[in-house]
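Dear U.,

For the methods section draft, I wanted the exact inputs and outputs in one place so we can describe them consistently. I've listed the two proteins in the order they'll appear in the manuscript figures. Please don't edit the token lines directly; just add comments below if something needs changing.

First protein:
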Amino acid sequence: MTTKSAISTINLSVTEAQNWLITDDGECFALDIDELELPEQPYRLYRFLTELEDILNRVSDDDSRIWTIAPLVRKLLTSSYWLQMEFTHPHPDPGWSVRFLYQEHGYPLTVQMVAWLSSYTSPIHNHAAWGMIAVIGGQEKHRLWRRSPTPEQPDRIESVGEKVFVPGDIVGFMPNAIHSVEPIGDEPAVTFNLYGVTDYSQRFEFDVHTQTAKKF
């Protein structure tokens, strides 16, 4: 069920926008990106998907892809307000929901809306793919980690810090960025999520107490 009561339509305009990049080492940097001029006509999802595929064919490294795609994400969400409502309200069990916006055999991207209820926290994980989220409603606290292996604990990680992202923020992730996500506040945290092709052999869930990792 799609709901419009959980969040209010927000202004994702350039003046209020913050763009971020989380590196493989868990560092979070502000991105100084030239925003795109909004078109007179709505910037449709199908056009966004086509331009994304063109970027993937033209740009080979993940860092450059994030820099190139972030302005398109803001252009899409600012122009097509209906997308901000295209999420499913989470059920208390499991406390989160995923709604795919587009699926096609062979299309190399995952495009979805994700919603989390407050008081739920994700496992510590990486994505093994470049990724990007845009916060639509609520707030998310991301705890950031990096690998710090030792001979006795090859999957050891250490905390780098944490960052709270608010509506209007667009956050890019490098494939080996490690984080956990915790919604904060009273309303669900709702995000537009975009991921490249996942290398599942390199995607892990980490246990900071035992300093071990398993496939995720």
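Second protein (the one for the lower panel):
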Amino acid sequence: MKIAYVHDDLMRRGGAERVLLSLHKIYPEAPIYTLAYKKDKTYPEFRKKIIKKSWFQTLALNETIMKWLFYPFGVWAMKSLDLTEYDIVIISTTFGGKYVKVSSHAKVYTYCYTPFRLVWRPDSYTIYENSRGLSRTFLNWIIGRLKKIDMKAANRTDYFLAMTEPMRKRIVEAYNPERDVQIFNPPVDFSRFHVSDKIEEYYLVVSRFEPYKKVDLVIETFNKNGKQLVVVGGGSQEKYLKQIAKSNITFKHGLSQSQLAEVYAKCKALIFPQYEDYGLTPLEANASGRPVIAFRGGGILDTMIEYTGDVKSSTAILFDDQSTKSINEALDIFENLNFDPIFLRKHAESFSESRFTSSIANFINNTKDLK
């Protein structure tokens, strides 16, 4: 039986790429097909995998160019990836992974982080929200074309797999699949993190620097309150964020896994201001024995235990508004509490990689021969 994986692109270090690394442990010899692969931009573990790239590799010089050229060139490139020789195809996707060619006899499992956001939730993009007149008409035309392509490709999936209940509902609303959507919470590899008995005076953000991540909001908050903040990551807003940050804010980039683990373990708490469909960094903070201060919404509601009075059985303080006022109020509450590092660590361990991979492997084994 021949098995292959598909992932949208391998040009970043994000949560989806971490989930793919976990998924790949189910069938570690299987190749990974993708739109484009830049080994210096994503996790080094992929260098040991068999990566099959599309011809779009020559055009996608970076992530920004890849996004701008995705329609129509990226769509054509994904459609050109021929996986008709495989019996099982496991697709890890947010946008174009579903577009590959598969045979009629293949079983297709699609781990869908969220339905293609530009197609199904275009108002979540600033470029769409700010468009007017002819530009809005043009964007609507592209979105309409992509929606037809996306729907047709979704029909090739035998089983959709979702991260959380809200994502399951989105998949059902977008694609109306024939079979029930199964939920498998993404894992955190807690073995990569450790608990420290020495906590320093800084708060932490670990994120890509994109507008919806709201890193600018955290910087604005800490510019005002003067507390120490460490920001780990990179992305399109890097220059801007560094320009607006005051001297109490430190940026770190290109950390090794051991360096990142140390930064997590010694922070006071992780700040998580954005709405995420899931979000692995809060669980990584818990795996490091550190609590989370997060916006109340999205995957946080599935992964965190909110503080409501019993700090020893809590993992996070949640705030309701994405504003400096709301974050500062949460910080004021936090600084009068003592979370239990052991409880935080045990909570993260309940989202183990072994649980995740064995659950999906069992599901595939139980369904691969069904009609």
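Candidate sentences for the figure legend, describing the second protein: The chain has a mean pLDDT of 95. The two ends are 17 Å apart (CA to CA).

Thanks,
Y.
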